[in-house]
Amino acid sequence: MSKICEWCGGNRIVDSEQTVYWELPDGTRAVEIENTPSIRCLDCTMEYQEEALIKEIEDQLFLINTKLLPKSITHAELMQQPRILKRNYFDFSDL
């Protein structure tokens, strides 16, 4: 089953990696996240992250000490940061 673009509905999409900028949960600053898994649509040229990955990044930012993050980090490095909490207790989407 082929994937379709979430923006235009086209089916010519490819996996890519992008640099993205994410605001920290406390709103104090944003961080640059390099090599973030992304989708690129060859029809509409939109580049985006899938919802599951967005949730993964946001959960990780809630679970780590963001004060220790540098201004720029790779996606892999971000996901390897030690967690302070075991889960995101502020996520009520599963209820």
Question: Any overview of this molecule?
Answer:
Strands 1, 2, 3 and 4 form a four-stranded mixed beta sheet that branches. This protein has a domain of 51 residues. Helix content is 19%, strand content 29%. The mean pLDDT is 91. It has 95 residues and is an alpha+beta fold. The radius of gyration is 15 Å and the shape is elongated.
Low-confidence stretches: none
Strand content: 25-35%
Helix/strand class: alpha+beta
What percentage of residues falls in helices of 4 or more residues?
A: 10-25%
Short description:
By secondary structure, the protein is an alpha+beta fold. It has helices spanning 51-63, 75-79; strands at 13-23, 30-41, 47-48, 72-74.
List keywords for this structure.
95 residues; alpha+beta; four-stranded mixed sheet; elongated; Znf_MqsA-type; YokU family protein; CHP03829_YokU
